[in-house]
């Protein structure tokens, strides 16, 4: 039988993988992927706790986070395409050099 602890452990593992991905960021696309994994880990925790307590508040908040994540990806990928067309790379080290 799967309990709340199992879901929270899965959520913690996914969040730690995402944290490592954000800290080791080498290109912008991988940073977006790591952010999405972190948001999904949080959504798993919200949904599991909501199911455990029998309240729909956590599940509704998870749907809100999914909507925000979708809009973040749409805007982020648009900016990523523009950056790639201008610079020819999505490497984050090229973002550190500022040109006026």
Strand content: under 5%
What is the CATH topology classification name? Helix Hairpins
Q: Any idea of the CATH class? A: Mainly Alpha
Please tell me the overall pLDDT: 89
Poorly predicted runs: none
Task: Summarize the amount of helix as a percent range.
Answer: over 70%
Oligomer: single chain
Radius of gyration computed on alpha carbons: 17 Å
Number of helices: 3
Largest sheet: none
Class of secondary structure makeup = mainly alpha
Q: What's the SSE pattern?
A: HHH
> How many domains, in number, for the residues?
1
Tell how many strands the DSSP assignment holds. Answer: 0
How do the strands and helices of this protein lay out in sequence?
Blueprint lengths: L3 H20 L4 H26 L3 H31 L13
Helix pairs in contact: 1-2, 2-3
Key traits:
100 residues; mainly alpha; 0% strand; elongated
Structural description of this entry:
With 100 residues, this protein is an all-alpha fold. The protein has one domain (7-90): Helix Hairpins (Orthogonal Bundle), CATH 1.10.287.3510. Helix content is 77%, strand content 0%. The protein has helices at residues 4-23, 28-53, 57-87. The longest helix has 31 residues, at 57-87. The radius of gyration is 17 Å and the shape is elongated. The model has no long low-confidence stretch (mean pLDDT 89).
């Amino acid at each position: 039988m799967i309990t709340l602890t199992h879901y929270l452990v899965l959520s913690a593992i996914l969040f730690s993988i995402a944290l490592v991905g954000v800290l080791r960021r080498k290109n912008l696309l991988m940073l977006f992927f790591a952010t999405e994994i972190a948001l999904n880990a949080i959504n798993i925790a919200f949904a599991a706790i909501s199911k455990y307590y029998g309240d729909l508040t956590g599940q509704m908040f998870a749907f809100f986070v999914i909507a925000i994540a979708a809009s973040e990806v749409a805007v982020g990928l648009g900016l990523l395409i523009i950056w790639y067309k201008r610079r020819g790379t999505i490497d984050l080290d090229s973002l550190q050099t500022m040109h006026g």
